[in-house]
Amino acid sequence: MKVKVYNQKGEEIGTTVLPKEVFEREINPDLIHQVAVCMMANQRHPWAHTKDRGEVSGGGRKPWRQKGTGRARHGSIRSPIWVGGGVAHGPRKEKKYKKRIPKRMKRQALLSVLSGKVKDNELVVLDKLEIDTPKTKKMAEIIKNLKEKAKVIEKKSLLIAIPKKDDNIIRSAYNIPKVEVIEARNLNVLELLKYKYLVLPKDSIKVIKETFVK
Length: 214
Prior knowledge:
By secondary structure, the protein is of the alpha/beta class. Helices cover 34% and strands 14% of the residues. It is built from seven helices and six strands. The protein has helices at 20-23, 29-42, 103-119, 136-148, 167-173, 189-194, 202-212; strands spanning 2-6, 12-17, 123-126, 158-162, 179-183, 197-201. The chain has a six-stranded mixed beta sheet. A hairpin with a 5-residue loop joins strand 1 (2-6) and strand 2. It is elongated, with a radius of gyration of 27 Å. The relative contact order is 0.19.
């Protein structure tokens, strides 16, 4: 599969062949959904937490004697039926939401999403992406060129996958809304689904193939 290659000025400078092992996979929506749900569950943190009768304060002694008062017998004011007592069957922080998913399924789902990006014309390939100093203005200009001159992306979210860590690029894109930078080796299903377009320098394609194709 051949795709157009652009430079940072938004000019078309040639074409490149995408590896079919990565970008020509069968798209499996059910697998993508399953992996996405598992990944979101693994990121979930239980914040709701109620105190049971062993955690609330007070209740060191019996409220009143067992017999002779005419009132119902009680052993502690920390009982759930008392105002200010412990909560029975309330949410607890100890609840586990984690789900296990095989690496092979995660890999297949990722390749399926990448193939979908190509099919929907949501993949943009650059010959290279270089910024000498961390300047938001420079990154904004590159994105503007791709939107206005190349017309390969619209005014929607953008994920840039770089071949290796580059602080200049990361810091340049930090303050631009709906733009995120990630290393190609760290690509995952959730990040790809979160952003509409994927921008890849040519070197990132090689990294993706070496990392996710076994």
